[in-house]
Amino acid sequence: MAELKIQKITACALVFRDGKLLVAKRADTKKFLPGKFELPGGHIELGEDILEGLRREFQEEFSIAIIPGDAVYAFTYMNGDSHVVEVDFLATLADPDIVVTPKPDEHSEVRWVNRDELDQIWDPSDAEYPAILKGFERAVGK
Fold first, then answer.
1. Domain contains 86
2. In total, how many domains does the chain have?
3. Which of 55, 65, 99, 112 has the highest local Cβ count within 10 Å?
4. How many whole angstroms separate alpha carbon 66 and alpha carbon 39?
5. Which domain holds residue 68?
6. Model confidence over 108-121: pLDDT tens digits?
7. Do the beta carbons of residue 130 and residue 12 sit within 8 Å?
8. Distances from the Cα of 85 to the Cαs of 60, 73, 80, 82, 101, in angstroms?
9. pLDDT in tens, 45-89
């Protein structure tokens, strides 16, 4: 096995409104997983508090404020020579009525999806899938 050079931490948010989950489609220009739906969030800076980093990522990617809640899931994956630890949190929008608009260099679209729509855009073998199911269970009850 090749020697790992980097370990990264990412934080993502499971934001629900009216029983639907906010998901974002990565811009086609992204090097890692272009055009794939994901939970919004991103990399935590060295020394940064994980919840502050999650708030910062939402501000950078959508120009909105969130209120992070409990961590509901964590997992790891490989991205090239990086080992990534992802922690997923329940979160709410600071302004529950705000329209979430992506920045084009980050995401090409955002959607609010219910549990039944999830399987149309997400591969159940994806590492984030169990996190999403746990989020629906905790936030919506199914």
1. yes
2. 1
3. 55
4. 14
5. 6-139
6. 999 999 999 998 99
7. no
8. 21, 11, 14, 10, 27
9. 999 999 999 999 999 999 999 999 999 999 998 888 889 999 999
